[in-house]
């Protein structure tokens, strides 16, 4: 993930939730993400739940399903990360 995208994700989380996530928290979480995370639905769901817990924002099962579909259809293009974060924060 490029630094610009990281900053955008952090900014999106803060704007949508009023809560800050440190770059260290994001880096720690990102270090565990492998290419298989995007293609393995169980791993992807776990990642979504970890981000939700980190941001202290509950994410419903239907939102998780929407995010999984969006990630699979996008191939997790880094340009779509902000959109995915906004999707998580709106429900």
Shape field = globular
Helix content: over 70%
Distance between the termini: 25 Å
Count of distinct structural domains? 1
Number of helices: 6
Give the tally of β-strands.
0
Rg estimate, integer Å = 12 Å
**Helix/strand structural class:** mainly alpha
H/E series, N to C? HHHHHH
Q: Runs with pLDDT <50, length 5+? A: none
Major β-sheet profile = none
Mean pLDDT: 74
Strand content: under 5%
Pfam family, one: SpoVIF
Region (Disordered): 16-35
InterPro entries: SpoVIF
Organism: Paenibacillus gansuensis
Summarize the structure.
This is Stage VI sporulation protein F. With 91 residues, the protein is mostly helical.
Describe the SSE topology.
Layout: H1 3-17, H2 23-31, H3 35-39, H4 41-55, H5 61-74, H6 81-90
Helix pairs in contact: 1-6, 4-5
Biased composition (Polar residues): 18-35
Organism: Paenibacillus gansuensis
Protein name: Stage VI sporulation protein F
Overview of this protein structure:
The structure is a single chain. The chain is an all-alpha fold and 91 residues long. The chain has one domain (3-90). The protein is built from six helices and no strands. The model has no long low-confidence stretch (mean pLDDT 74).
Identify the notable features of this structure and list them briefly.
single chain, 91 residues, mainly alpha, SpoVIF
């Amino acid at each position: 993930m490029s630094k610009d995208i990281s900053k955008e994700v952090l900014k999106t989380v803060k704007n949508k939730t009023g809560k800050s996530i440190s770059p260290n928290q994001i880096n720690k979480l990102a270090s565990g993400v492998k290419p298989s995370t995007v293609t393995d639905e169980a791993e992807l769901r776990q990642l979504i739940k970890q981000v939700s817990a980190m941001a202290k924002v509950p994410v419903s099962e239907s939102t998780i399903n929407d995010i999984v579909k969006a990630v699979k259809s996008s191939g997790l293009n880094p340009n779509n990360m902000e959109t995915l974060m906004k999707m998580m924060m709106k429900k």
